[in-house]
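User: Design a sequence. Structure:
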């Protein structure tokens, strides 16, 4: 495994999810709830992009088209990342935000590796990129589930 593949599990991620049950964010004020809503919308966009990638992966057989599909995925993902970076982050959610930034960065790197691997026919790079992308998606999904859970808990308490 290359050095880049293990980069997805950064220190912020381990601090949030290294325990048996990750602590959920506390939604105490309107700024926090607003952040969570925008973050969930952007994470849903990532999900859409990933689903398109999976369809392209399933339908395409020509490596140059897969390379292009991965490059487009990366380009669109980086646009979502830029929007995510621009969200004002309440201090109570800073660690969650940083962990999600790490997941975005890992996914971007993974799609770059996949594109490069398909373009130059290097299976090891395709595999490394795929592994990195899947690790990033697992991190994103766990964080999204925790944020959704916090929203539903705060709605139940209201």
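Assistant: Done.
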């Amino acid at each position: 495994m290359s050095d880049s593949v293990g980069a997805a599990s950064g220190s912020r991620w381990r601090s949030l999810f290294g325990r048996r049950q990750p602590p959920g964010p506390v939604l105490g004020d309107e700024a926090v709830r607003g952040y969570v809503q925008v973050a969930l919308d952007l994470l849903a966009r990532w999900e859409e992009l990933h689903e398109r990638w999976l369809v392209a992966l399933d339908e395409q057989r020509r490596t140059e088209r897969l390379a292009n599909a991965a490059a487009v995925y990366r380009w669109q993902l980086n646009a979502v990342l830029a929007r995510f970076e621009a969200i004002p982050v309440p201090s109570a959610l800073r660690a969650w935000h940083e962990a999600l930034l790490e997941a975005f960065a890992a996914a971007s790197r993974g799609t770059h590796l996949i594109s490069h691997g398909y373009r130059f026919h290097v299976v090891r790079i395709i595999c490394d990129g795929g592994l990195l992308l899947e690790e990033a998606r697992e991190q994103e999904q766990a964080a999204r589930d925790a944020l959704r859970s916090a929203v539903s808990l705060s709605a139940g308490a209201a």
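The radius of gyration is 17 Å. Helices lie at 11-17, 30-59, 63-85, 94-120, 123-157.
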